[in-house]
Amino acid sequence: MAKTYDVIVIGTGAGGGMALHTLCKAGLTVCALNGSRRLDPKKDFRNHKQPYDMPFRGFGDPQKSKNYIGYMDNEYTEGIWEHDIAFTTAPGTEWTWRRCFAVGGKTNFWGRSSARFSDIDFQAASRDGYDVDWPLTYQEIAPYYSRVERFIGVASTVQNRPSNPDGEYLPPMNFRCIDRILESGANKIGIPYLPDRIAQLTRSLNGHPACHYCGNCTTGCDTGSFFSTPWCLLPEAEKSGRLEIRTNALAKNILVDNDGRASGVAYIDRDSKQEVEVHAKAVVVAASCVESARILLNSKSRHWPTGIANSSGQAGRNLCDHLYGTTARGYFPQLLGQPSFPDNVSDSTIAWLPRWQNINNPREEKFIRGYSVYPDGGCSGFPWYYDTIAGFGRDFKREIKRRYPTPIGFYVQAPTQRSDENYVDIDPTVKDIYGIPAARLHFAWDKNTLLMWEHAKHATEQLIRASGGEYLGAGEIDIPGTSLHETGTLRMGNDPQSFVTNRFGRTHDVPNLYICDAGVFPNCTDKTTTISILAFSLRSTEHLIENFPQFKA
Amino acid sequence: MANQSPDRRAVLEMLAKVAVVSQFPGFSRWSFAAENEHSAPPKAAHYDPQFFSPAEYRLLDQLSELIIPRDETPGAHDAGVVEFIDHMVAHDPSIQFQFRRGLGLVNALAFQTQAQDFLSLPLDKQEGVLRKIATPSQSEIEGPAFFKLLRSYTVMGYYTSRAGLESLDYPGLRLYSASPECPHKDDPEHRHLPPPRY
Question: Which structural domain range is residue B92 located in?
Fold first, then answer.
């Protein structure tokens, strides 16, 4: 008889990585299924390559670059992001879905901003009457955030912001010239401008060296100086001897026993294109929000005719996303012609404008809840602003040089709210090349989020002006899915009839099935998701371990 | 490793420091950072155009130099921008026609207005022809579109070359042991900086 593992973990990103690490350390045997290969930092991370070391200078082979999806998919990361992704969109829906199936998933390239969720998020419904509260309090999750921060290392300062609880931080990154200028402007108009919470090592930690500030984080870090599953979680888990990672294994559906409990996973081996079954006493799904919902919905059986753990009919529903877009662009005339300054040492993730709206009064703005903003600017690599300078010759070249330290832009992170219109289901006809029915996205920005966008455009224009800058205009709203912060398809809540998972990420219907990714978050808040995925996954996995004795093969 | 570039050497030095301070037995895991295997093919001492004819190539070289000329720092010609453009265009059929036609347009205008081949003209006359090509008018949209394309590829080629990035003093050519801090402590608004250097 084939081996039965203690637990199967689907996915090795933040959620799956934390789950398998915690399970192995607790003495359980784990089979981790991963959709693609292991990355070899020696070959796959090209973050120390200069553009002139690249065959196409970083722009990519024109024949291939047409198919790049989003800015992280480029010549530096070639061969890592998936390009034959099976999803469809309902009429009227636009959606982009960048998928990294490599071991470690998107943690290999993530944005690293790491703010904790807070009670203003968890109890937002009580404050403004929309939707429902989260089924837990900040006090319950705070210790898990602390453990994660001590483990991965997050650099920031104590800021005493009501919407952003402070954590346990490494020394912050220093403010650059553009930060000092913007901080002064922000003080004048009364909005916060502070060091971001950034999961990047400002000193060595737990055997990982401090950051060397090359500035190319989103092409992968070859010194492991920011958190990723392969650098921080896998070595210890693999050392335990209890982890088996199956690569090129695309999870298809969850298998059930005669009682309808999870008994294993069927996956497609991408090399042989054959279906393989693997068995375990419990299953953790952490394939990321949309993919996890797809797996559950595709897991139909006699017990679960609409998909496993979906008696509520809520699997795939309540999809939320962050609206991303450049709210304002400008430049600082006071920096014209000044010497270059290393502004781009951290992919520009140094400062942020944490949520400042609807703090004291949940209804003080035309919208409910709030958004945060990330600034970006100064001397980067390529002078993208050249297009705004006319002419050619010496003057053109001099003007490019003069403006090099001056550009400034703002990127908004605005959450959508839960709605019946935004969800993922299974396309009735389209399958991927492995024969797995495709996910179908139904999504549109809601009015509340668009009001935030307008508000952010105005606020950041004011900030540029208050800082002595010249305002050059606003950008466009990015296509939905750009943020990679989708949440809410497998929401946690106390009522089994309305929620897929309980407050520990365990499905109400199937006690040995846990969800350890952002699918369990009831909405997406104004904060990024990764550190919360780590904290919630840690808590859920420890809950699984506690309950493990009752699971049988 | 006598021929390693200065930035690569800096990476090695940085990693040596890192290994000392981290006291981590597994530091060899990142010692490869300086020796990344994924290298561009070694640059040929002599570049043979892949797409453009020798005459087109010479014209393109001069046009790129007009757009980004040599001053205190190298220009497009020194930086080999024409090689980059030829390489990109050779791999991108969607812009081949526009480039080829645009170059023809430049020579046609040189003959029409100066009765000479573009490359035979003195510099100021060359600039005059290029300016005319670049200027939109009711009857002429092809010229400005070509100029925009040509200028984009020149900028792309120059500011991704070592010479171009050095001309900007691109900070990414170095590594840092601490996160760099604004040096103007007493001037948060940066209203009283030294006179512009450039």
Answer: 6-190
